[in-house]
Every structure is written in structure tokens, then in C-alpha cells.
Design goal:
Number of strands: 18
Shape: elongated
Strand content: 25-35%
Mean pLDDT: 82
Number of helices: 9
Distance between the termini: 24 Å
Number of domains: 2
Length: 459
């Protein structure tokens, strides 16, 4: 019996030692923190779903109003006939004879302009689909192009006849059905009528303007159009020397594509931008035949430049960035209560840690839900007050003293404030986050430097 009692007392002593070990408690908290990563991951999945729904709404707006537009051209199309002398052998009444004939082969010669000047204005608007919105625009574009009559023999084409009277100026936009108006005028103020045209290796519908070039040494054409689109406006001008000027009242442009503007001015009331291009790097020769595989839609997509009308306040982007600090917030919340328990000798149950951590996880869900209907700053403030307030009230009961809960409120408020600054600071967000983590770790290491993690002094 004495031996049984002795073993029982020994087990109780070991149990007290284990339960009193701060190291074991820390491992338990790590396990609980990992469990709380599950609802954090679920909120992150919900965020991805909401972003997908927004993308669907933006796509629906683009489908009904007009999508991303790319203006391409102009290109001159010239019908040509290649003639080649062919000797044919014939056998008549057993007598062999030879006959010389001219074999004709029709083709199309495409010639890029010497100069292109383009000016455009984007008049933006915002359309909504439910709680989601998308930036749309009406673009007014003036485009002038000039060609010098090419010497086809100098191009390397022998025995060729060019049908100058059937020259056609080709022009393309991504969605021609969104054109509100289009007109073309030649150098002598002759109005040109447009018609749909197909180019080899291109699935897009081009607009062709027949222009008689039989009596002039040069050709000049001015195009004017108004078109609807959304989110992005791109262009691909193909002159030997090209210049593009674009302006808009949208104050948050993002210049993109193969070339950014040479000069740009962005103000609160809009932007102005200027591009200049040369023949080098455009990815196309000065001329080519339709039988070659020089031109394609893929070339247009990868060679264009332009501007995107970005949303200056993307609440989902800010919510996504805040989610990256979710694990850090839960961990720091655990650390705060753990320090109270370790330094002041207060006994806290694991479930109390778990509930306090759950309140902090709920903060991210509140921010995500509110940011869809109010500005992100307000959503963040409401979520921070709700979460920090809930944890603070719970801390009064956990710590058994209102005065002890004051540091908890202060630390949580500081954490939410620092996170908000990090979210708003794009360029130095990584540096600020790293500094916060380092400071938190250094503080914990300093305050716990004399703790008995193994519980060796437990009795």
C-alpha cells in the first residue's frame, strides 16, 4: 500500500511538473495556433471567391459595355499581280512544239506608313453590377498616317503590276462592334467608305477604306473614331516614325505594354502622356506579302502599349494583404496573454487562449465583409474596435483585474494601428512588417529571459 501511495505521489508530482512547465504550455499554444490557421485559411478562400465574383462582374460589364480595346494600324493593302514567262511543250500531230505564255499570280502587298500621329482622349466612368464596379470609358481618337509611293522593284519584286487604284487602308480595333462612329478622309478631303476585311493569320475583323492611289506620289489618310471600352486602352502604331498623345480625367493610370510614355503628367484631375516609336523594335518589316507569316494577332497582343484605368482603392487587395499578417496577429495575441501568465503567475486555460485567438481571426472576416460596402479604412476601424473590444472585455475576466487588461488593450490597439500603416504603405510594407516581427520577438525574448521554461523549480 505504501508503495502504491508512493507511486501515486510520484505521478502527481510529475504531472504538476509537466503542467507547470512553460515550455509544455508554449507547445500547446503552438498547437492551438495551428488549429486557428484553419478558419484563417477558410477566410482566405472566401476572399478568393469574392475576388472571382468581382472579376465575373467586371467581365459582365465589359461584355455589355465593351472590353479592353487595342487600336492597331493603319496598314496599306495593295493588290499585285506577278507575271512570269512559262514555256509549255505541246505535241500536235506527232510534232513537238513549244509555246511561250505569261503566267499570272495574284497576291497582296502590305506596306507600313512612313509617319503616324495619334491623339486620343479617354472619358472615364464607373459602372456597377451589384456591389461590384468597373472602370469604363469612351475613347475619341484622331489618327493620321502618310505613305510615300513605294518602288516595288526596289523592294525586290520583279515583273509585278501594282493595282494602285485598288489600294486599301486597313485599320483594326479589338471589338469593332463597340465603335460609336468612324470616318476616314484622304489627303484631298475625300470621304472614304469603310468595309469589313480579313487579313491572313488574323482572326480579327479589320476595317478597310479603299483609296485610289493611281495619280499621287504620296498618300495621306486621317482616321477619326469614337469607341467604348473598359479597364484598358492599348494601341499599336506601325509607322517608321510614330507619336501618340493620350489624355484623360482618370487620375489613377497605370502605363503598361512594351513601351511606357516618354513624357507623362499625372494630376488629381487626370493625366497626359506622350509616346514616340521608331521602326526599330516594332517586330514587322516595312512590307510583306500575304503569303508570308509575318503578321499575326499574337504580335499585336505582345507589341502594344497603353494605359490601364486602375482602381485606386482596391478593398480586396488591401484585405488580401491584411490576411498575410493573420498568423502573426494570432501569435502575438497568444504571446501577450502568455507573458501575463508567466510573469504575473496567473493561470490561464488553453480554451481561453483559443477564444481570444478566435476573436482576432474574426477581425479579418469582419474587414472582408464590410469592405465590400464601405471604404476599407472604415471597415478596418470597425473590425479593429469590435475585435479588440471583445478581447479586452474577455481579458478583464481572464486576468481578474481591469488594471491588468489595460496593457492588453494598448498592445492590441498598437498592433491594429501598425498593421493599418503597413497596409497603406505599399513600397515599404515588407520592411515594416519585418521590423514589427523583429521588435515583437526581441520584446518576448527580453521579458522571458529569466523564465523557467522546463519547470525545473515546480514542486
Amino acid at each position: 500500500m505504501d508503495e502504491v501511495n508512493h507511486n501515486t505521489l510520484g505521478l502527481k508530482k510529475v504531472g504538476r511538473k509537466i503542467s507547470g512547465s512553460l515550455g509544455i504550455k508554449a507547445l500547446v499554444l503552438v498547437f492551438m495556433g495551428l488549429i486557428l490557421m484553419i478558419p484563417l485559411a477558410m477566410i482566405d478562400g472566401l476572399l478568393n471567391e469574392r475576388q472571382y465574383r468581382k472579376a465575373e462582374a467586371v467581365a459582365e460589364i465589359g461584355h455589355s459595355w465593351g472590353g479592353q480595346q487595342t487600336v492597331c494600324g493603319p496598314i496599306l493593302s495593295l493588290p499585285v499581280v506577278f507575271k512570269k514567262e512559262v514555256v509549255k511543250k505541246r505535241l500536235i500531230n506527232g510534232i513537238e512544239s513549244f509555246e511561250r505564255t505569261m503566267d499570272e499570280k495574284k497576291d497582296t502587298l502590305y506596306v507600313l506608313p512612313n509617319e503616324v500621329e495619334m491623339s486620343g482622349r479617354l472619358d472615364p466612368d464607373v459602372l456597377k453590377r451589384g456591389i461590384f464596379s468597373a472602370a469604363v470609358y469612351r475613347a475619341s481618337v484622331e489618327l493620321g498616317a502618310a505613305w510615300t509611293k513605294p518602288d516595288v522593284r526596289a523592294m525586290g519584286y520583279e515583273d509585278v503590276t501594282v493595282e494602285w487604284a485598288k489600294a486599301t487602308v486597313l485599320f483594326n480595333v479589338t471589338e469593332p462592334q463597340r465603335l460609336l462612329s468612324i470616318r476616314a478622309v484622304s489627303f484631298d478631303d475625300t470621304e472614304l467608305a469603310g468595309e469589313p476585311v480579313r487579313l491572313p493569320l488574323s482572326n480579327r475583323e479589320w476595317i478597310g477604306f479603299p483609296a485610289d492611289w493611281s495619280n499621287q506620289s504620296g498618300l495621306e489618310v486621317n482616321l477619326g473614331l469614337e469607341i467604348k471600352g473598359s479597364e484598358r486602352f492599348h494601341f499599336l502604331v506601325l509607322g517608321d516614325e510614330s507619336e501618340v498623345n493620350l489624355n484623360s480625367s482618370w487620375a489613377h493610370p497605370s502605363f503598361e505594354g512594351t513601351s511606357i510614355p516618354l513624357q507623362r503628367t499625372v494630376r488629381d484631375n487626370g493625366f497626359e502622356a506622350n509616346w514616340k516609336f521608331s521602326a526599330f523594335g516594332r517586330g514587322l518589316p516595312k512590307h510583306w506579302l500575304s503569303t508570308s507569316d509575318v503578321f499575326s494577332d499574337a504580335l499585336v497582343n505582345r507589341s502594344s502599349s497603353g494605359v490601364a484605368l486602375i482602381d485606386p482603392v482596391d478593398n480586396y487587395r488591401l484585405a488580401e494583404r491584411s490576411m498575410k499578417y493573420g498568423a502573426l496577429f494570432v501569435a502575438l495575441g497568444f504571446v501577450v496573454f502568455f507573458l501575463f501568465e508567466a510573469i504575473l503567475g496567473i493561470r490561464l486555460h488553453g480554451m481561453q487562449y483559443f477564444l481570444a485567438g478566435a476573436a482576432q481571426v474574426l477581425f479579418f472576416l469582419i474587414v472582408l465583409a464590410l469592405s465590400e460596402i464601405v471604404a476599407f479604412s472604415w471597415a478596418y476601424l470597425i473590425g479593429a474596435i469590435a475585435s479588440a473590444g471583445l478581447v479586452s472585455l474577455y481579458a478583464i475576466s481572464m486576468l481578474g483585474n481591469r488594471r491588468r487588461s489595460v496593457p492588453v488593450v494598448s498592445i492590441l490597439a498598437s498592433l491594429y494601428g501598425v498593421l493599418f500603416v503597413i497596409l497603406k504603405e505599399q513600397d515599404y510594407a515588407l520592411l515594416a512588417g519585418s521590423a514589427l516581427l523583429f521588435l515583437a520577438l526581441a520584446t518576448v525574448m527580453f521579458l522571458t529571459r529569466k523564465l523557467d521554461w522546463a519547470g525545473s523549480r515546480a514542486t
